[in-house]
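Dear colleagues,

As part of the handover before I leave the project, I'm documenting each prediction I ran so the next person doesn't have to rerun anything. This entry is a single chain, and its sequence is reproduced below.
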Amino acid sequence: MEKVNGYIILEEQSVIDTSYFNTTYLDGGITRVSYTSSGASNNMTFEEYKKIHSDKLIVISCEEYEFRLKQSVLEQKKQFKEIDKASFDDMFNILPPQSWGTILGVEFFYVLERIDMNLVYWYGSIDGRYFRFVDEATAKKNDIVDRFKKLAEL
């Protein structure tokens, strides 16, 4: 197995877009694509891959990829929205609610479907107000409750 030396992304992409989640490796100084969405690269060079998909693709280092991935998660966790009761109820009933509970007057749950990696939409109700935000499915319930309480103070 070749050692991954980079990830393919769109040139001006600030958030990792999994539509181009492909890795590269070096083969005698030539950058080759080690994975494509079809599951095989046919030893395609990166330049050949660009001709097929987009000339705006670049290769970033593994370190840059990890940095951008962490930034993407932080940015997504900043997202929140006040919603109405009907939206809250719809999301509660659309799929079985996960981590459903009530702590300190905050009813909360998350929707099983992932946004990206381990990120999910959490829904909460406090004092007759309803909110949605993004966090990890494995987040501690007390941290989730604290976030909903802070949103209710806005």
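The chain has a mean pLDDT of 84. The radius of gyration is 20 Å.

All the best with the project,
I.
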